[in-house]
UniProtKB/TrEMBL annotation:
Membrane spanning residue stretches: 30-50, 56-80, 101-128, 134-151
Full protein name: Chloride channel protein
Pfam families associated with the record: CBS (PF00571), Voltage_CLC (PF00654)
Topology with respect to the bilayer: Multi-pass membrane protein
Amino acid sequence: MSALCKYREVIGVTNSTSDISFGSLMNGTIWKLVLSLIFKIVITIFTFGMKVPSGLFVPSLAIGAIGGRLVGITMEWLALDYRDAWWWGIYCEPGKVCVQPGLYAMVGAAAVLGGVTRMTVSLVVIMFELTGSLEFIVPTMAAVMFAKWIGDAFDRRGIYDAHIALNGYPFLDNKEEFTLNSVAADVMRPRPGDMPLRVISQEGMTVGDIEELLRLTDHNGFPIVVSEDSPNLIGYVTRRDLSLAISTARKNQEGIVTDSLVYFSSNAPVDPEGPGRPVPLRLRKLLDLAPISITDQTPMETVIDIFRKLGLRQLLVTHMGKLLGIVTKKDVLVHIKELENEDTSTMLFI
């Protein structure tokens, strides 16, 4: 790094501008910075695209600092070659440093990071804390704001938001506004023609029935209802808790077999109901007895606000206490894309 700044030592000991401008030290410094800039950009593209935790914050600062340093050296070069020009005489006083390439590097680092992430005030504060120079806040603020405006002219999303959309991750942006005239019944599943919603009855299902349900589906959880004939919502149980409880009961609880009845109600029997009957399995403790639910006529704008503010993965849809269906975050995003006539095949369902 000291070799890159060695040309500045020549500036202090010589009055020959030609030696400075076109000497090997100046050219070597510029070429090293250009190659470093190209290498850093290429490596950052690869590392950020490979989905490895390599970060984008420091590489953006490095790219901006290298680019800013190149601009600073160029301005210093021009100031030395045209020192007698009137426009330099206005700003450059004899015997004082006219151009500070380090300042250009700092401003360039802030500008690139601000343009990439769309950070504004917080970025200026970070740069001030890094340098401790209050006098450089104004050029840093100007560079960051211009970088943000130029970036917003192409796309109002930052690099992270754009990368989320590029990969198709289910994400609802808190800053984005939606105007929808639909209700929850228009988005919920099952839709007309679909298979019935997979639910678990609070009584009557066996361990084998639940294990088969877990094997045939990949849902993250299941609503618990009174029975298939009376779909009044009782609660909700996650797939992970249900699978873990059944596997643990088979290993540690004596008498639990495939034909053992599973009870999610409070009046579950402790002992077998008759001679020769297997021991029942009580799983009421797994239940979320107050799952967040909405009615079928809830406006979609309200549904989106619930997903945003509570960070939910799904909402249960009911009518007069009876379970009608389920709305997931992915269903909401697909519905929005359909209304905007966008391709829904890019959504990544994980």
